[in-house]
Amino acid sequence: MADSRTRKTGVEPQIVDYVLAAGAVAMLAGMLTAIARGYPEWGLLHWPIWAHLATLAIALSLTPIMLVRQRGDLWHRRMGYVWLACMVVTSLVSFLVPPPGTLSPIFILSILTLAISFRVWQTARAHQWKQHRTNVRGIVIGGLLLAGFMTFQFGRLFDRWIHGLAGTTIG
Description:
- The chain contains six helices and no strands.
- It has 171 residues and is mainly α.
- 27% of the residues are buried.
Protein backbone atom coordinates (compact mmCIF):
# COMPACT_ATOMS: atom_id res chain seq x y z
CA MET A 1 0.00 0.00 0.00
CA ALA A 2 1.28 3.44 -0.88
CA ASP A 3 2.41 5.91 1.75
CA SER A 4 -0.58 8.00 2.86
CA ARG A 5 1.33 11.17 1.94
CA THR A 6 1.46 10.12 -1.73
CA ARG A 7 -2.22 9.16 -2.08
CA LYS A 8 -5.06 11.56 -2.72
CA THR A 9 -7.30 11.95 0.29
CA GLY A 10 -10.88 10.78 -0.23
CA VAL A 11 -10.27 8.38 -3.10
CA GLU A 12 -9.59 5.36 -0.91
CA PRO A 13 -12.12 2.54 -1.22
CA GLN A 14 -15.10 2.82 1.09
CA ILE A 15 -17.29 0.05 2.49
CA VAL A 16 -19.75 0.47 -0.38
CA ASP A 17 -16.91 -0.19 -2.84
CA TYR A 18 -16.10 -3.49 -1.15
CA VAL A 19 -19.79 -4.46 -1.17
CA LEU A 20 -20.11 -3.62 -4.87
CA ALA A 21 -16.87 -5.48 -5.61
CA ALA A 22 -18.24 -8.56 -3.83
CA GLY A 23 -21.48 -8.22 -5.79
CA ALA A 24 -19.55 -8.11 -9.06
CA VAL A 25 -17.59 -11.24 -8.09
CA ALA A 26 -20.84 -13.03 -7.18
CA MET A 27 -22.49 -11.95 -10.43
CA LEU A 28 -19.48 -13.11 -12.45
CA ALA A 29 -19.53 -16.47 -10.65
CA GLY A 30 -23.26 -16.86 -11.36
CA MET A 31 -22.79 -15.88 -14.99
CA LEU A 32 -19.91 -18.31 -15.53
CA THR A 33 -21.80 -21.11 -13.79
CA ALA A 34 -24.87 -20.54 -15.95
CA ILE A 35 -22.77 -20.43 -19.12
CA ALA A 36 -20.98 -23.65 -18.21
CA ARG A 37 -24.26 -25.41 -17.45
CA GLY A 38 -25.78 -24.14 -20.69
CA TYR A 39 -23.18 -25.87 -22.84
CA PRO A 40 -25.75 -27.92 -24.84
CA GLU A 41 -27.29 -24.69 -26.18
CA TRP A 42 -24.13 -22.74 -26.99
CA GLY A 43 -24.50 -23.39 -30.71
CA LEU A 44 -28.01 -21.93 -30.70
CA LEU A 45 -26.91 -18.49 -29.52
CA HIS A 46 -26.33 -15.79 -32.12
CA TRP A 47 -23.31 -13.48 -32.05
CA PRO A 48 -24.85 -10.51 -30.18
CA ILE A 49 -25.44 -12.72 -27.14
CA TRP A 50 -21.82 -13.91 -27.18
CA ALA A 51 -20.56 -10.32 -27.61
CA HIS A 52 -22.83 -9.23 -24.76
CA LEU A 53 -21.57 -12.02 -22.48
CA ALA A 54 -17.91 -11.46 -23.36
CA THR A 55 -17.98 -7.73 -22.65
CA LEU A 56 -19.93 -8.34 -19.44
CA ALA A 57 -17.40 -10.91 -18.28
CA ILE A 58 -14.56 -8.45 -18.84
CA ALA A 59 -16.41 -5.61 -17.08
CA LEU A 60 -17.39 -7.84 -14.15
CA SER A 61 -13.79 -9.07 -13.86
CA LEU A 62 -12.38 -5.54 -13.80
CA THR A 63 -15.01 -4.06 -11.48
CA PRO A 64 -13.64 -5.40 -8.16
CA ILE A 65 -10.10 -4.48 -9.14
CA MET A 66 -11.12 -0.96 -10.11
CA LEU A 67 -13.15 -0.45 -6.94
CA VAL A 68 -10.62 -1.60 -4.35
CA ARG A 69 -7.16 -0.81 -5.71
CA GLN A 70 -5.31 2.49 -5.85
CA ARG A 71 -7.05 5.06 -8.02
CA GLY A 72 -5.88 7.74 -10.35
CA ASP A 73 -2.71 6.06 -11.56
CA LEU A 74 -1.89 4.89 -15.07
CA TRP A 75 -3.25 1.36 -14.48
CA HIS A 76 -6.51 2.71 -13.11
CA ARG A 77 -6.95 4.85 -16.21
CA ARG A 78 -6.06 2.02 -18.61
CA MET A 79 -8.37 -0.47 -16.91
CA GLY A 80 -11.02 2.25 -16.71
CA TYR A 81 -10.97 2.77 -20.47
CA VAL A 82 -11.35 -0.97 -21.05
CA TRP A 83 -14.11 -1.22 -18.43
CA LEU A 84 -15.99 1.75 -19.86
CA ALA A 85 -15.65 0.49 -23.45
CA CYS A 86 -17.02 -2.89 -22.33
CA MET A 87 -19.98 -1.23 -20.63
CA VAL A 88 -20.78 0.83 -23.73
CA VAL A 89 -20.50 -2.17 -26.07
CA THR A 90 -22.53 -4.32 -23.65
CA SER A 91 -25.28 -1.69 -23.60
CA LEU A 92 -25.32 -1.21 -27.36
CA VAL A 93 -25.26 -4.92 -28.15
CA SER A 94 -28.08 -5.56 -25.66
CA PHE A 95 -30.48 -4.01 -28.19
CA LEU A 96 -29.51 -6.69 -30.74
CA VAL A 97 -30.16 -9.62 -28.38
CA PRO A 98 -33.99 -9.88 -28.40
CA PRO A 99 -36.08 -10.23 -31.55
CA PRO A 100 -36.91 -6.80 -33.03
CA GLY A 101 -39.73 -5.01 -31.28
CA THR A 102 -39.52 -7.02 -28.05
CA LEU A 103 -37.69 -4.65 -25.75
CA SER A 104 -38.37 -5.04 -22.04
CA PRO A 105 -37.91 -2.73 -19.04
CA ILE A 106 -34.33 -4.00 -18.61
CA PHE A 107 -33.39 -1.85 -21.61
CA ILE A 108 -34.00 1.28 -19.56
CA LEU A 109 -30.83 0.26 -17.71
CA SER A 110 -28.98 -0.03 -21.05
CA ILE A 111 -30.01 3.50 -21.99
CA LEU A 112 -29.04 4.84 -18.56
CA THR A 113 -25.70 3.04 -18.73
CA LEU A 114 -24.95 4.68 -22.08
CA ALA A 115 -25.86 8.12 -20.74
CA ILE A 116 -23.92 7.71 -17.50
CA SER A 117 -20.92 6.23 -19.34
CA PHE A 118 -20.34 9.59 -20.98
CA ARG A 119 -20.45 11.25 -17.56
CA VAL A 120 -17.98 8.69 -16.17
CA TRP A 121 -15.51 9.57 -18.92
CA GLN A 122 -16.20 13.31 -18.67
CA THR A 123 -15.77 13.52 -14.90
CA ALA A 124 -12.60 11.41 -14.99
CA ARG A 125 -11.07 13.71 -17.61
CA ALA A 126 -12.00 16.76 -15.52
CA HIS A 127 -10.58 15.15 -12.33
CA GLN A 128 -13.98 15.49 -10.64
CA TRP A 129 -13.42 12.34 -8.62
CA LYS A 130 -16.48 12.61 -6.37
CA GLN A 131 -18.86 12.80 -9.32
CA HIS A 132 -16.82 10.18 -11.16
CA ARG A 133 -17.08 7.76 -8.23
CA THR A 134 -20.84 8.36 -7.94
CA ASN A 135 -21.35 7.72 -11.65
CA VAL A 136 -19.23 4.55 -11.61
CA ARG A 137 -21.13 3.23 -8.61
CA GLY A 138 -24.39 3.99 -10.43
CA ILE A 139 -23.33 1.93 -13.44
CA VAL A 140 -22.12 -0.92 -11.24
CA ILE A 141 -25.40 -0.98 -9.32
CA GLY A 142 -27.75 -0.51 -12.27
CA GLY A 143 -25.86 -1.64 -15.35
CA LEU A 144 -24.11 -4.66 -13.84
CA LEU A 145 -25.78 -5.86 -10.65
CA LEU A 146 -29.46 -4.95 -11.14
CA ALA A 147 -29.46 -5.80 -14.84
CA GLY A 148 -27.51 -8.97 -14.10
CA PHE A 149 -29.97 -9.99 -11.40
CA MET A 150 -32.82 -9.47 -13.87
CA THR A 151 -31.22 -11.92 -16.31
CA PHE A 152 -31.68 -14.70 -13.73
CA GLN A 153 -35.49 -14.20 -13.67
CA PHE A 154 -37.77 -17.20 -14.07
CA GLY A 155 -37.78 -18.61 -17.58
CA ARG A 156 -34.96 -16.51 -18.96
CA LEU A 157 -31.88 -18.14 -20.47
CA PHE A 158 -29.65 -17.89 -17.39
CA ASP A 159 -32.45 -19.11 -15.13
CA ARG A 160 -32.84 -22.26 -17.24
CA TRP A 161 -29.09 -22.75 -17.50
CA ILE A 162 -28.33 -22.21 -13.81
CA HIS A 163 -30.92 -24.88 -12.95
CA GLY A 164 -29.46 -27.30 -15.49
CA LEU A 165 -32.38 -27.07 -17.91
CA ALA A 166 -30.32 -26.44 -21.06
CA GLY A 167 -31.77 -28.34 -23.98
CA THR A 168 -35.28 -28.44 -22.53
CA THR A 169 -38.19 -26.64 -24.07
CA ILE A 170 -40.00 -23.90 -22.27
CA GLY A 171 -43.71 -24.70 -22.12
